Please model this.
Amino acid sequence: MRRSSTLTLAVVTAAAAAICAAAPSQAASPAAGPDRTALDEAITVRPGDDVAGAVAQVYRKAPKSPGQTWRGASGDLVTGRKTGAGAHFRIGSIAKPMEAAVLLQLSAEGRVDLDETVQHYMPGLLPEKFEPITVRQLLNHTSGLPDDFEGSPAPSPDQVIDSRLDYYTFDQVIQQTLRPKGRQDESGPGPHFAPGTQQQYNSFGYRVAGKLIEELTGHSLQHEITTRILTPLRMKDTSAPGRTSHVPRPYLPGYLPNGKGEPVDVNEQGGNPSSMTSTTADLDRFISGLFDGRLLRPAQAAELRTVPLDAGGKPLPYRPDGANCASGPHKGTACFSIGLMSFPLSDGSVVWGKTGTDLGYKSGVFATDDLNRRVVYAVGTASVENRTASAIAGRLAQAAFGG
Model:
């Protein structure tokens, strides 16, 4: 049974908006280190959070002061077991900036031109109904492509749980999305808009990008991410296991309720070649390496903080989806760059990062440009509500990025 894109795609939810909403109403001088009491309270699961447990790591550094790190965890409310701060979890779309970093490295090596088309590199992959789409447009969500398995009937909670072990290669995702068999309309979905005219968050573009990486390098995406990112940054607790796998122990449990309302631990999943597991410490290493020059040359690193512009030099309009690019002074316009998303804080600074969603898990990693304020979090869900994790994310954001 194919999984519902609403439940399985790594989409930005209210948890991401909370990063901005929780920012202080007035600019404040940063404290010397994280407010440990506030962070302990932030990660404590409260009624209405719809969360079984959470882990988080926050780093904060004031000018002329050494940085300090706080790490915390709340217990598993379903079983009553303790969860350590070093627990593993599924990262969902936080894998997207890793894919983007690989393609930016290949660009620096002259092996791919971001402004060349997908049709040039992989002829025949996209049906003729799609206009030429550049690699850059895949990565900055301006391709206009449909999303994974768009048009598939929505499964029931039990079907979602029963099909969680299904694994799809990039080719299977692409073909079953664009050329579906067994559906009423086997011609597949068409474009949402002309490439480069709007922005809308799109996971399917990163399935195409993942296949492109494998075509360009002759290696699996897992191999490229491991050799180019995980090994250099010593991210020893991060893996792209491939096929069906359990989250490595110790792990943060994630639950989905079945048709009877009973919680089912869904840490074992299939997914696709970009499905990954990690820890808060490793994702902090990743965002740090992404910003400090260890992974990318300056020209490529600049792409991480560049939203797509129109011919007049203004950010492209964001196609409303009820979740993204809907806060701050530039709401309604593009807030995604290649691989990352931006949130303006009320003190005038900006945080960059990414959220992720997998069945049973929601997570995020965000940092200021200077890396002096960073937050990584993950929650194991206890419901299918979209608000899951937003309260904890908001409280962590207030403590991490506030005064």
About this structure: The longest helix spans residues 204-217. The longest strand covers residues 51-60. Residues 105 and 300 are 8 Å apart (CA to CA). The beta strands are 51-60, 68-74, 89-90, 255-257, 263-265, 277-278, 341-344, 350-358, 361-368, 373-381.
